[in-house]
C-alpha cells in the first residue's frame, strides 16, 4: 500500500481516507498502544458496573498545548470514575495525520476524538461502512448522556443514526464588539438595522471619534474569512440562509439567494467609502485584531462575542479610557432578526469497533462518559482542582491567576469534556467585564432567532470530495465583487462555473438526502 496523506480539507486527503478505510475495515486490532487498554470485562450492563474493578479505557485526542499535561487531573479523574485511563495526546497541528495512520493500522483506541466538524465530514463514509458503534439506542440507559441536546445530536447523525458524543459549543455566539466610548461621544445607539450599522461605521470613520483632530480612524476591522469574519454574520442579518436554504421546495446554496447579493453590495459600499480596512481580503485575523486594539477601528464583527475579554485587555494597554460593548440584535430589511447557527459542537468522540469488542465493553465506556457529565467530574476536567486552578465566586468559576499552571495541568483534559454547562452542570465562568457579561446574555438571546443549516446532517458525496475546492470559487468571486473587479453578472458566471465543476451534482445529492 502506498503511504497515505493525513486527513485534511484537500481533495487528495479525502481520496486517501477512502482508500484507508477500505484497507482497515474489518480489522481486529485492540486500538491501544499502552497498558491502559485491555479487557474491560464482559459482565457490564448499562451504566452500572457489576464488579468493582476499574474500567480500563484508552482515549485519543488532539493536544492544543505545547506539552502533554501532567497526571494531576487524570489521577483525580480515575478516583471519581473508577477507571484506569490511558490518554494518547497528539499535537493538534498533526492530529489528522495521526488519525489517518491509526485507520491504516487498525489501531484506533476505544474512545477516539476527532479534531473538528471537518474531520467528522471525512469520517462519514467510514461510519456508514459500519466501522464505529452506533450509540443512539443506548443513551436512554445513561441518566447524564440522555441530557445531551437533541438539536445538537441531530446535527451529528449519519443517515439518521447517532454514533458520537459531542463537546458542546454555543449555537450562536456571533455579533458586534464596538467602541462604546466612541458611540457615546457621537451619540450613536447600538444599531438596530443594517442601515444603522452602516451609519455607525461611517461615523466612526468621518467624525473623529478619538478626538485627535486627525483622519486616522475607520469603522470596521475585518479579515480574510467570510465565515468567522464579518461577512456571514452581517449576511444573516440581511436574511441570507445558513449555508443552504429552501426555495420553492428545493435546497440551494446561500449564494443563490438575493440576500447574499445584498450583503456583497453592503460590504462593497463600506469598502468603496473607506468605512472598513481596504485590504480586508488579505488581512489576517491577527492584523485585524491589532487594527482594532490599536485604537484605530471602532467595530469588530465575527464569530465569537466572548472575544471581547481579550480585545478589551489588549485595547486598554493602548487606550486606557476605551470602553467596549457587545451587540447582536440587528434587524434585516424585512424587520426580523436572524442569527446563523453552528452545529453546536466543537468536537466529537467515536467508538471504533476494532477497539471496542462487544456491547458490554461499549456500555462500560459509555458509563465513563456518563460520569464525565456529572458536575463534580465536569468541573474537575474543565476547571481543574478547586482552590488550585480556580475558586468559586457567586456560584461561578474564577480561574487562578497562575495561568501557566492551569495550561500545563488542565487544558488537555478541558478539551475533552462532553456536553456543556446546561447539560453537565459544570460552573459557568465568572465574568466581571460589563461588556463580556452583556455578550453572554446576547449569546443566549441569539438562539431564539437562530437559523439552522438544513444540510448539517445530510449526505453529499460531491460535497465530501470537492466541497472545499468548489467553495473557494465562490469565496474568490465574493471578494472580487466587493473589490469591484466583477459585477453581478460576473458573479453569476462564477456560479455557473461552480455548477459545472460539481455544484449542480451537489445540489441534487443534498436534495435527494433531504427528501429521505
UniProtKB/TrEMBL annotation:
Alphabetical keyword list: Cell membrane, Lipoprotein, Membrane, Palmitate, Signal
Keyword Transferase attributed: no
UniProt keyword annotation of Cell membrane present: yes
Residue stretches of biased makeup (Low complexity): 31-48
InterPro entries according to UniProt: Bact_solute-bd_prot1, SBP
Pfam hit, one: SBP_bac_1
Region Disordered, annotated ranges: 28-54
Signal peptide range: 1-23
Protein name, as recorded: Extracellular solute-binding protein
Source organism (scientific name): Paenibacillus polygoni
Amino acid at each position: 500500500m502506498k503511504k497515505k496523506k493525513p486527513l485534511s480539507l484537500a481533495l487528495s486527503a479525502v481520496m486517501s481516507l477512502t482508500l484507508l478505510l477500505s484497507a482497515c475495515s474489518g480489522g481486529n486490532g485492540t486500538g491501544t498502544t499502552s497498558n491502559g487498554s485491555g479487557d474491560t470485562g464482559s459482565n457490564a450492563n448499562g451504566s452500572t458496573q457489576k464488579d468493582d474493578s476499574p474500567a480500563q479505557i484508552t482515549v485519543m485526542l488532539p493536544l492544543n498545548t505545547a506539552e502533554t499535561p501532567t497526571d494531576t487531573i487524570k489521577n483525580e479523574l480515575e478516583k471519581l470514575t473508577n477507571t484506569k485511563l490511558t490518554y494518547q495526546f497528539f499535537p493538534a497541528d498533526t492530529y489528522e495525520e495521526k488519525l489517518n495512520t491509526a485507520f491504516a493500522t487498525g489501531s484506533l483506541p476505544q474512545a477516539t476524538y476527532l479534531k473538528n466538524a471537518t474531520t467528522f465530514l471525512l469520517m462519514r463514509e467510514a461510519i456508514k461502512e459500519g466501522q464505529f458503534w452506533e450509540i443512539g439506542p443506548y443513551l436512554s440507559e445513561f441518566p447524564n448522556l440522555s441530557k445531551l441536546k437533541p438539536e445538537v445530536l441531530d446535527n451529528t447523525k449519519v443517515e439518521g443514526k447517532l454514533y458520537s458524543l459531542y463537546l458542546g459549543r454555543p449555537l450562536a455566539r456571533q455579533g458586534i464588539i464596538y467602541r462604546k466610548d466612541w458611540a457615546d461621544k457621537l451619540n450613536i445607539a447600538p444599531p438596530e438595522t443594517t442601515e444603522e450599522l452602516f451609519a455607525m461605521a461611517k461615523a466612526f470613520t468621518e467624525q473623529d471619534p478619538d478626538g485627535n483632530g486627525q483622519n486616522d480612524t475607520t469603522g470596521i476591522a475585518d479579515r480574510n474569512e467570510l465565515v468567522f469574519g464579518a461577512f456571514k454574520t452581517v449576511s444573516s442579518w440581511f436574511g441570507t440562509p445558513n449555508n443552504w436554504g429552501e426555495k420553492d421546495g428545493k435546497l440551494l446554496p446561500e449564494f443563490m439567494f438575493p440576500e447574499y447579493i445584498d450583503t456583497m453590495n453592503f460590504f462593497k459600499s463600506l469598502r468603496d467609502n473607506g468605512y472598513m480596512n481596504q485590504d480586508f481580503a488579505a488581512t489576517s485575523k491577527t492584523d485585524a485584531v491589532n487594527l482594532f486594539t490599536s485604537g484605530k477601528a471602532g467595530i469588530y464583527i465575527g464569530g465569537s462575542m466572548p472575544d471581547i475579554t481579550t480585545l478589551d485587555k489588549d485595547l486598554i494597554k493602548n487606550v486606557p479610557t476605551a470602553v467596549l460593548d457587545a451587540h447582536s440584535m440587528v434587524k434585516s430589511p424585512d424587520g426580523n432578526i436572524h442569527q446563523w447557527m453552528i452545529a453546536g459542537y466543537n468536537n466529537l468522540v467515536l467508538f471504533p469497533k476494532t477497539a471496542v469488542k462487544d456491547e458490554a465493553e461499549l456500555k462500560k465506556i459509555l458509563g465513563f462518559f456518563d460520569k464525565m457529565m456529572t458536575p463534580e467530574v465536569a468541573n474537575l476536567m474543565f476547571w481543574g482542582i478547586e482552590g488550585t486552578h480556580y475558586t468559586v465566586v457567586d456560584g461561578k468559576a474564577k480561574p487562578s491567576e497562575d495561568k501557566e499552571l492551569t495550561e500545563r495541568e488542565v487544558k488537555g483534559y478541558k478539551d475533552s469534556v462532553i456536553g456543556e454547562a446546561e447539560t453537565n452542570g459544570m460552573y459557568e465562568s465568572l465574568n466581571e467585564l460589563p461588556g463580556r457579561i452583556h455578550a453572554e446574555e446576547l449569546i443566549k438571546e441569539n438562539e431564539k432567532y437562530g437559523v439552522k443549516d438544513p444540510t448539517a446532517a445530510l449526505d453529499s458525496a460531491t460535497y465530501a470530495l470537492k466541497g472545499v475546492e468548489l467553495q473557494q470559487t465562490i469565496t474568490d468571486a465574493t471578494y472580487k465583487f466587493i473589490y469591484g473587479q466583477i459585477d453581478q453578472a460576473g458573479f453569476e458566471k462564477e456560479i455557473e462555473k461552480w455548477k459545472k465543476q460539481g455544484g449542480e451534482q451537489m445540489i441534487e445529492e443534498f436534495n435527494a438526502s433531504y427528501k429521505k
